[in-house]
């Protein structure tokens, strides 16, 4: 009982620090409202799966971009600021194992923004009358893999670099380069029908082969997208494990 009280008390402290009023009151309605590109891309009348995929690409889809930005803020400018200023000591001195503390940080910083995204997105699509099978499942799979990979990479980076500013620059450069230049490269490979290279670069941006599948109907593209998402999930798990090891060895 005492252990659960400690766990609950620590969770409440971490949660309130990241989502103090009016963060939740603003973020959730904005996530719902910014899904406006879904009906905008489907406004031609007939349901077109490739338009739904296009509307679900980050940067175009503001809700996804906002989810990633919220997680980035939590990891870099809240947890990272604690590490940089050594105020993380106050958490490390709590009567709680470091593994549990790490999991609480992980849940608050990464999982909660994801829960807000998937719940608001599904609510919006259901209200729009879009079936939740097929293309919607593919979109959720691709974004989930990319989000998990990206946030796990940022978490590992902040624990290694220990500087919010440097980590922000490193994360934007590495992840932005992968997503943008990887996507451009995959697009060129599709045009040149260089299928083997698409398989290699698919983890950099699984959206492009997914979009290719729903435009052309070529099942190979769907396989490349699934492969890219799987690689991202595996790398994300590796980053999380390494981050946990670093966190447990963190010296005050």
Shape verdict: globular
Instruction: Report the uncertain regions.
Output: none
N-to-C order of helices and strands: HHHHHHHHHHHH
Report the biggest beta sheet as strand number plus sense, adding barrel if it closes: none
Class from helix and strand fractions: mainly alpha
Number of helices in the DSSP assignment:
12
> Taking Cα atoms only, what radius of gyration do you get, to the nearest Å?
19 Å
Note the gap between the termini: 29 Å
What helical percentage do the residues reach?
over 70%
Average pLDDT score: 88
Strand tally is 0
- Strand portion, in percent? under 5%
What does this structure look like?
It is a single chain. With 252 residues, the protein is mainly α. The chain has 12 helices and no strands. Helix 11 (207-216) runs antiparallel to helix 12 (219-248).
In short:
With 252 residues, the protein is mostly helical.
Keywords, separated by commas or semicolons:
0% strand, 252 residues, mainly alpha, single chain
Reconstruct the topology from this structure.
Layout: H1 2-18, H2 23-33, H3 37-41, H4 49-55, H5 62-85, H6 89-92, H7 98-128, H8 135-161, H9 164-191, H10 195-201, H11 207-216, H12 219-248
Helix pairs in contact: 1-7, 2-5, 2-7, 4-11, 5-7, 5-8, 5-9, 8-9, 8-12, 9-10, 9-11, 10-12, 11-12
